[in-house]
Amino acid sequence: MKIIIINGPNLNLLGRRENNIYGNETFNDFFEKLQKKYANQEVSYFQSNIEGELIDKIQEVGYKYDGIILNAAAYTHTSIGIADAVKAIETPVVEVHISNTFSRETFRHKSYISPNAKGVIVGFGLQSYELALQSFLT
């Protein structure tokens, strides 16, 4: 199975950013553990702070991969372009958020991606990514 994790803005700062919300572990450290645990799966990773690069990556893999795990971060709540990219592709997308977005600021309660996602996982920390991965394997 070929799965890609696509992370949006500021997620490159995990482990240093708002540890009370996002924890102390870097995404790269977490990703290495995930790859080892699921060594029989092809799991790759892409991160960008730039909306257009995220759209380009979604379009690039959206007809070739078996699944996309997408944490568009703040773009979740603002980007119709990313939402349209998710809608346009064939590969199923699971929307993921590390924090419980519904316990945060009101603007984080709206997702433009959710209506076109296979599912949504929020609030389980970095474990949210593994839950999303497992959803493709069952």
Automatic annotation (TrEMBL):
Keywords assigned by UniProt? Amino-acid biosynthesis, Aromatic amino acid biosynthesis, Lyase
- Which EC class does it fall in? lyase
DNA-binding among keywords:
no
- Pathways involved: Metabolic intermediate biosynthesis; chorismate biosynthesis; chorismate from D-erythrose 4-phosphate and phosphoenolpyruvate: step 3/7
Q: Which GO terms describe its molecular function?
A: 3-dehydroquinate dehydratase activity
- Catalyses which reaction? 3-dehydroquinate = 3-dehydroshikimate + H2O
Chain sites annotated for binding substrate = N71, H77, D84, I98, S99, R108
Q: Which residues form the signal peptide?
A: none
Against InterPro entries, the record matches this protein to: DHquinase_II, DHquinase_II_CS, DHquinase_II_sf
Q: Its Enzyme Commission number? A: 4.2.1.10
Record-annotated site: Transition state stabilizer: R17
Active site (UniProt): Y22, H97
Q: Which GO terms describe its biological process?
A: amino acid biosynthetic process; aromatic amino acid family biosynthetic process; chorismate biosynthetic process; quinate catabolic process
Question: Is-annotated flag, keyword ATP-binding?
Answer: no
State whether it acts alone or in a complex, and with which partners, per the record: Homododecamer.
HAMAP family from the xrefs?
A: AroQ
Could you say which protein family the record assigns here?
Belongs to the type-II 3-dehydroquinase family.
| Functional note | Catalyzes a trans-dehydration via an enolate intermediate.
Protein's name according to its UniProt entry: 3-dehydroquinate dehydratase
